[in-house]
Amino acid sequence: MKLGTYVFDGQTRIGCVVGDEVADLERLYARYLSEVEGDRRAEGLARARISSSMLHFIRGGESSWEAAVQALEHFETRRAEGDLFAEVRPLREVRLRAPLQPDAVVCAGYGPAQAEDMDLYRHAEFFVKSGPHVIGSGDPISHEPEVAKDLRSEVELGIIIGQGGKDIPQNEVLDHIFGFTIFTDILAADQLSMGMEGGVFHSRVLEGVCLEAAGALGPWIVTKDEIEGGVENLSHRLWVNGELQEEFKPDELPIDPLSFVSHLSTFFTLDPGIVIASGSPGGPRLGRSDSGGPTLAVPAMKCGFLKLGDKIKAEIDSIGSLENSVEKIHEDS
Amino acid sequence: MKIINVEHGMKRMLGTFVHEDKVIDIQECYALFLNDIVGDPRAREMAAERLPYDFAQILEGGDKYLRAFNAGVAFGTKIFNEGLVDLPYDVSTLVPKLPLTPRALVCLESNFKDYFDETNRTRPDQAGFFLKLPHTVIGPGEAFWVDPRLIKKLDYGVQLGVVIGKGGRNIPPEKALDHVFGYTIINNLSARDHEILPWGEGGKEFHVRYGQGRNFDKSVALGPWILTKAEMDHPEDLGMRTWVNGELRQEDNTKNFLWSIPETIHYVSRIMSLKPGFVIAMGTPGGCGLGSDEALGANTHERSGEAKQGGYLQVGDDIRCEIEVIGVLENRVRRPLRDSPFNFSFKAFPGRGEAVSYTESSPTDIFKWGDKEAKGWQKQGRRK
C-alpha cells in the first residue's frame, strides 16, 4: 500500500494512493462500516481506527491496518460495479504533505572515510533532527547564506517504525518496520566542517543539520510488504536540475539500514514518531589528520553546493520520487 | 503561576496552585466557568477540547487555548477564594507528572566558564548546540532507568529550561523574551563513555558525539512545574545547585551565563524557527562527573566554594536539582525493570564486515538470551 497525507478542500487527510488517485481511508472505512455492517456509529469508529493522522493510524497496529484493507476492498468491488466515490480524488487535485510529521528524525551521521580503517567505526555518529521542521513533497527548502552557506542534499531511505520497541535483534527489525519512504537530507557543509575547536572535535549538529528545512519526507510511505528483494537492493538516485548527482544501493553503504535500526534500539525505544534515515555515501566523512586527530570532510555534490532556484529530485526504486526546490524564505518574527 | 501536571486516582490533569498545598484542575474550572457564567450547554466537551493535559498542545493551539487556560485559572482562583471547599485537591494526594512534552528539546552543552575550565577546553566561539529526542524526557520523581552495562559513565547536569510560548524566526535579542512562556528545571543526563572519545597522540584530542552520548531512554528530567514568565523577573540571577545523595556537586548562578537567554533565542531562531512548545536547555555549570574524569580530558583541581568533586552516577543514586525561585527537581537512578537481552558486545556501529566492538568478545555474538525472551522484552516497548 502507498499511504500519504494530503490536503483536500482545506482538510488534512490520510489516504492510499491507487494509480493516479488517492482514496480517503477514514471516510472509505466509515462507508464500508455503514454500507456492509450497517453500523450506526460508523464515523466515530472510523475516526478511532484510522483518523486523519498517519501517526494515529500506524500506532493503531494490526486492527487499524485491517480496517484500511477492508475499506479498500470495499471500494474496489463497489466501484467495479459502478458506484461513485467522492472519497477518492485524482492526485493532481490534492496537495501532498509529508506522510507523517515526526517528533524527530534520527540520521546516520558520519561514516568512516575508508572502510578498512576499522577504528573509525567507533567514531561513527547519529544525529537528531527536529521533527516539526521536516517538510513534504513540493515544499521549499530554505537557503539563507548568512546562516549556512554550503548546502548539500542527499537521498536517504526513510524508515517508518510500526510496532515500537527497544533492544530489537537484527533479524527481527523488519517485524518492527511499518514501511519506507524517501528522506531528502539537507546538510550545511560549511557549518559541519567548522567543528574542530580547542582540542575538541564537536559536531555542530544544530548549525549543520537542523536548518529551517531539516529535510523532506515523502511523497508517501510504501508499506514493507510491497518491497521485493529487500531494501538493500533498491537504487537511490538524486538529481539537481535534472543532472544526476548520486546513485547507489544501501548495499554499498558502510552502514546497513536494518542493523542501524537495531543499533539505535539499544539506546532508545523506537516509536512511529521517530523516523530513521539510513545515510548516503556522499555524507560527511571522518578521516585522520597527519597527527592522527580527527578530520571531517563534507564533499560538494557534482553540481557544487545548492543555489537558490535549484530543483532537487530524490528517487528510490519501488517508492517513487520526491521533488523540492531551493528558495529564500522571508519570514521574520 | 506554577503549571503542574498530576495524577489523582484515575485522572490525569493540568493544575495550578491556589494555595501552598492546594491545587485546582484547570480543565474542570474552565468547564464550570463555561457552564455557570457563559451558559454553554457543551461546557465539559469544550473544556476537554481546549485544555488537554499536555501543556504543549495548549501552547501550540495559540491564543484561543491560552485564553481558555487563563479563564479557567482565574475562575478557579475566584471560587477557591470564595470558599468552595470541595474544589481544590490536596497536594499530598497527587502524583506529579511531566508538565510538558517538548516539541523539540534544544540543548546547549554548557554555558559556564567553570565547565569549560574544568573539562580543559578553551571556550568555543559559539556554544555547542544539539537536539535530544523528545520522547526520552521524564517527569519529576520518575526514575532514570539506566543499564550500567550499556552506559558506564552516566553524568548529570542541572540546566535552566526556557519554554517557548510564541513561535518565531530571526527573533531579535531585544524581543526574545516576548517569545518565552516560562521557565522550568532540566536535569540533562549524558553517557560520557559514548559521548566523548579520545583521539590522536596520547588521546589528547576528543571527538564529541551528541548522538549516542545524549539520546537514550529516560535521559532528561523536566519539572517539577513550569513557572510562568510573569513570576520571574530575574531569570539571569538564579542560584542553581545539584546534590547527589545529599552531597553538593554543582553550584553556580545563571548570572554567569556565557550566552544570555535573549542571545541564545536569537541565535537558535536564525538557524531554525522556534515553535510553541519548544524548550531550550540553557547548559550546565561545572561540577559534572566529567569534571573529575582525567581520561576524558578533565583538568582536576580543587573546586572553589562548597561543591565537592564527585564521580559519575551509580544505580541507586538520588539526584536533586535546584534552581532558585523555580523549585526542586528530584529523580533517582535505577536499573531497568528487565535487563536488555543484549550482552553489549555489539558492534560499535553497524558497519559492514568486521567492525570493532566495545568489548573483547566476538561482534557476531549478539544475544545472551533466546529469541523468546527477547520478544517478551520488546513487547514492553513504550506505546503512546
Written overview of the protein:
The complex is a heterodimer of chains A (333) and B (384). Chain A is of the alpha+beta class and 333 residues long. In chain A, 20% of the residues lie in helices and 35% in strands. Chain A contains 8 helices and 22 strands. In chain A, strands 1, 2, 3, 4, 5, 6, 8, 9, 11, 12, 15 and 18 form a 12-stranded mixed beta sheet that branches. In chain A, helix 1 crosses helix 4. The two termini of chain A are 41 Å apart. The model of chain A has no long low-confidence stretch (mean pLDDT 89). With 384 residues, chain B is an alpha+beta fold. Chain B is built from 9 helices and 21 strands. Chain B has helices spanning 26-38, 43-50, 55-61, 63-81, 113-118, 192-195, 210-214, 261-271, 371-379, and strands at residues 2-8, 11-19, 22-25, 89-90, 95-97, 104-108, 129-132, 137-138, 143-145, 154-155, 158-164, 180-188, 190-191, 196-199, 205-208, 220-228, 239-244, 247-253, 278-281, 318-323, 327-334. In chain B, a hairpin with a 5-residue loop joins strand 14 and strand 15 (205-208). In chain B, helix 1 packs across helix 2 (43-50) and helix 1 (26-38) packs across helix 4 (63-81). Mean pLDDT of chain B is 84; it is low at 351-384. Strand 14 (200-202) of chain A pairs parallel with strand 15 (205-208) of chain B, so a sheet runs across the interface.
Keywords summarizing the entry:
heterodimer, A: 333 residues, alpha+beta, five-stranded mixed sheet, 8 helices, globular, B: 384 residues, twelve-stranded mixed sheet, 9 helices, disordered C terminus
Helix content of chain B: 10-25%
- Assembly status: heterodimer
- Portion in strands of chain B: 25-35%
Residue runs with pLDDT of under 50 for 5 or more positions of chain B: 351-384
Number of strands of chain B: 21
Round the mean pLDDT of chain B to the nearest integer and report it: 84
Number of helices of chain A: 8
Distance between the termini of chain B: 29 Å
In N-to-C order, the SSE pattern of chain B is EEEHHHHEEEHEEEEEEEHEEHEEEHEEEH
Overall geometry of chain A comes to: globular
Using a beta-carbon cutoff below 8 angstroms, give the protein chain pair with the largest interface and the number of residues from each chain.
A-B, 73 and 81 residues
Q: Tell me the radius of gyration of chain A.
A: 21 Å
Q: How many individual β-strands of chain A? A: 22
The assigned structural class of chain B equals alpha+beta
The helix fraction of chain A, in percent, is: 10-25%
Question: How many helical stretches of chain B?
Answer: 9
Question: SSE order of chain A, as H and E?
Answer: EEEHHHHEEEEHEEEEEHEEHEEEHEEEEE
Radius of gyration of chain B: 23 Å
Unreliable sequence segments of chain A: none
Alpha carbon gap, first and last residue of chain A: 41 Å
Instruction: Report the portion of residues of chain A in β strands.
Output: 25-35%
